[in-house]
Design brief:
4 helices, 78 residues
Length: 78
């Protein structure tokens, strides 16, 4: 099986592809991610990624904060 870094890269790649497809198909991104997650869970070669505090803070949180900052409504923030 692939190393942990390769597994995280695969999951992030799948997430990016699902987000692009969801935008093109005008489907909520969260619904696409749930379906993709169920599909990944059913694959025979399961991923052995454990969600640690370091993984969440270093890999997942910065892109989420960046995207939120891009699409923030400044009038509502005030």
């Amino acid at each position: 099986m692939a190393s942990i870094i390769e597994q995280v890269e695969i999951v992030l790649l799948v997430t990016a592809v699902v987000a692009m497809l969801a935008r093109r198909l005008r489907v909520p991104t969260t619904a696409g991610l749930v379906l993709a997650g169920m599909g990944l869970a059913l694959l025979p070669g399961t991923f052995s990624i454990t969600l640690t505090k370091d993984l969440i803070f270093d890999a997942f949180l910065p892109p989420l904060v960046f995207e939120a900052a891009l699409y923030i409504n400044w009038r509502e923030l005030r």
